[in-house]
Design brief:
seven-stranded mixed sheet, six-stranded mixed beta barrel, binds iron/sulfur cluster, 31% helix, alpha/beta
């Protein structure tokens, strides 16, 4: 028997914990602590702990599949490549689109956008960051000149105040939650604003149970109270920011007085005042947010408002402070960094900039897609559903829009309008079932590569076992498909490291990185030169804006696109639970995790449940303007009256049948966090 331990990085959340994969006779059998892992020092949450369980699931895809007469039949790689190449060559560039993945490596994401732009010549390139943190990328880039978490995970523990808004950190980024507790043990005050009394809220010194969708009102109210009391950081505002007067014109209006904000948010005025005082008077205050802030039609406004609050209190450019946007999936930061977005090449280099367009053509040695902004994921689905024949062909790598996207009936209609779809994944997902060709990729344990966590730390994956059957690393599949399309030279990579070296060559923020330098610790971007140590804290001396100043943005509060009414009287907010990950593709094939939480539920307040005659665990009907599902009720005081919550992992009671695909006008992110529903008792269940 041969045993070995292979240190690698977790495939679930954006915290980027490291652990060892335990390999017995060439097969991954377990995980074990990697005590020197830089982010988590050997600790993991349950998902990380059981991250070996799905790797050798009997459901893994092991051979290419081609749909014939409505049924999948096994095929050779040559057959699959020949079919795909002949189809791809038959469409015009504008008729094709590609979706990359927040689950695969930087190298694979880089190659996917290169394939879209250099081979298919299409500008339509996006991925699921559109659905979680597109507002962060757009909002923070606009005001700071960089659309990423400003500080490191480690330095959250040094904060003297931690304000968590729209993040259930203890369940969704547990090893970042650990840093919040370290800060609290060091004397920090912890404030949590959330409509649910989550495990994170339960650890707070001050809990603010506000209505989903009132974030701007709350933060404007906090800022007004700070400014009224003269607690703003006048020196920081004067030296490092601009447009404070414009900000004051909005936030000092009577609309944002404590009393008025209390009415809109459903909070007590004195609690808002306490939060303002703690944030303003702390030596350093870190603001943490996640999808409770971003997944709104005002997602970009929400993000800019977090930046306003941190700028007027001088909480940027130093340790224990910052705007800490907690990215969801393991490599959603990296997929954005690699240019898997419709408006930028890797390193956020704008596709509409003629010099950068030429730079990429020179680097890749071929003509590439014209320099215009392509479709977002959400636009792709709308075009497919509502303008049939415009977009005809889709290549999807490691994404599952049939569970993850809002208004699933609309998504299904759109995907069924495609003439040809290729899905590359490790399991036959709900989306793969609709594909014409399915290509078996590899999971994190089966190839080398890098991923970039929420704090911009680029870390290595290390191969622990071979992929099952004929499955291959995703980078190898893209290279072989590139060659089948006549682009052998552009895709002549023999290893993930060779791809990474090209990434470093064309991407300024990764310019000084090599596999050797990443080593065990990784490096935080920007790391532009071979000598540069990386940048754990951004904006220390100046912001990345053209004049180096942070931009304060005057933002008025606007209600969600859909608000409760007589027909749909409850506000639905969706999210994750601690045992499962996104569309459940991996966690629902992990026996230990599935046992803990085998299906979904709707969480409702006892007063709402009583009014409807609904008891705990009773099956109910949840209905929105877009569809209905049957789901078990979970009656709990841990949710605000008038609000219901559902996790979105479970296909048998998919919350996204109900959600609204109303979009933020700048980031095109859907409003997952607020739509109107009604809950009905099922007569048969009485
Ligand atoms: Fe994995 Fe996130 Fe859990 Fe860390 S906190 S073990 S990265 S799921």
């Amino acid at each position: 028997m041969e045993m070995k331990y292979v240190p690698t990085t977790c495939p679930y959340c954006g915290t980027g914990c490291g652990f060892n994969l335990v390999v017995k006779d060439g097969k991954v059998v377990d995980t074990a602590p990697w005590h020197r892992a830089p982010v988590n020092q050997g600790k993991t949450c349950a998902k990380g702990n059981y991250a070996a369980e799905f790797v050798n699931s009997p459901d893994r895809l092991t051979t290419p599949l081609i749909k014939k007469d409505g049924k999948f039949v096994e095929a050779s790689w040559d057959e699959a490549y020949a079919l795909i190449a002949s189809k791809f060559k038959a469409y015009k560039p504008e008729e094709m689109a590609c979706l990359a993945s927040a689950r695969v490596s930087n190298e694979e994401n880089y190659l996917m956008q290169k394939f879209a732009r250099a081979v298919l010549k299409t500008p339509h390139m996006d991925h699921c960051a559109r659905l979680c943190h597109a507002s962060t990328v757009a909002g923070l880039a606009a005001v700071f000149g960089s659309g990423a978490m400003t500080n490191s995970i480690e330095d959250i523990a040094e904060a003297k105040c931690v304000f968590v808004i729209g993040s259930n950190t203890f369940e969704q980024h547990p090893l970042i939650g650990r840093r919040i507790m370290m800060a609290r043990l060091n004397g920090a005050k912890v404030i949590v604003a959330d409509p649910r009394f989550t495990p994170t809220a339960k650890q707070a010194d001050l809990y603010l149970p506000f209505f989903s969708g009132t974030d701007v009102a709350l933060m404007n109210g906090i800022m007004q109270y700070i400014i009224k009391n003269g607690w703003e950081d006048k020196e920081f505002i004067a030296k490092r920011t601009k447009d404070f007067d414009k900000l004051k014109e909005v936030v000092m209006q009577d609309t944002y007085s404590l009393e008025n904000v209390a009415k809109v948010t459903g909070l007590h005025a004195e609690d808002i005042a306490t939060a303002a005082e703690w944030i303003a008077k702390a030596d350093s205050s870190a603001l943490l947010y996640s999808m409770g802030i971003t997944q709104h039609t005002v997602g970009v406004d929400n993000v800019k408002t977090t930046a306003n609050l941190q700028m007027i209190t001088g909480n940027l450019g130093k340790r224990g402070a910052g705007v800490c946007a907690l990215r969801g999936q393991n490599n959603v930061q990296g997929a954005c960094d690699m240019g898997c977005l419709p408006n930028v090449y890797s390193g956020y280099q704008a596709v509409i900039n003629a010099d950068l367009h030429k730079k990429m053509e020179d680097a890749w040695g071929c003509d590439i897609a014209e320099g215009k902004v392509g479709y977002t994921v959400t636009k792709m689905i709308n075009v497919l559903a509502d303008e049939p024949g415009t977009l005809k062909c889709l290549y999807v790598m490691g994404e599952n829009p049939m569970i993850s996207d809002p208004d699933l009936h609309h998504v299904e209609k759109g995907l069924k309008n495609l003439e040809f779809m290729v899905v590359q994944d490790i399991f036959l997902t709900e989306t793969a079932e609709l594909a014409d060709v399915v290509l078996p990729g590899s999971c994190y344990a089966e190839r080398d590569g890098t991923q970039t966590n929420t704090e911009r730390r680029v870390q290595l994956w290390r191969k622990a076992q071979d992929a099952p059957g004929q499955a291959k690393p995703d980078w190898q599949i893209i290279c072989e498909l590139g060659a089948a399309m006549g682009y052998e030279k552009q895709f002549a990579f023999k290893s993930a490291e060779e791809i990474f070296n090209e990434v470093a060559k064309v991407t300024p923020s990764y310019g000084g990185m090599t596999y050797a330098r990443l080593g065990a610790e990784g490096l935080h971007w920007p790391c532009p030169t071979a000598e540069h140590p990386g940048t754990p804290v951004l904006h220390k001396e100046k912001f990345g804006t053209p004049d180096g100043l942070g931009i304060l943005s005057p933002i008025e509060w606007k209600p969600p696109a859909e608000v409760p009414d007589a027909e749909y009287p409850l506000l639905l907010t969706t999210g994750r639970c601690m045992w499962h990950w996104h569309t459940g593709t991996m966690t629902r094939r992990s026996e230990s995790l599935e046992r803990e939480e085998p299906t979904g539920w709707v969480e409702m307040n006892p007063e709402d449940a009583k009014a409807l005659g609904i008891k705990d665990k009773e099956m109910v009907r949840a209905i929105s303007r877009r569809g209905e599902i049957t789901i078990g009720a979970r009656v709990t005081k841990d949710i605000k009256k008038g609000v219901v919550f559902m996790p979105f992992h479970f296909k048998e009671c998919a919350a996204n049948v109900l959600t609204n695909n109303a979009l933020d006008p700048i980031a095109s992110i859907p409003e997952y966090k607020a739509c109107s529903v009604r809950i009905e008792k099922i007569p048969e269940a009485q």
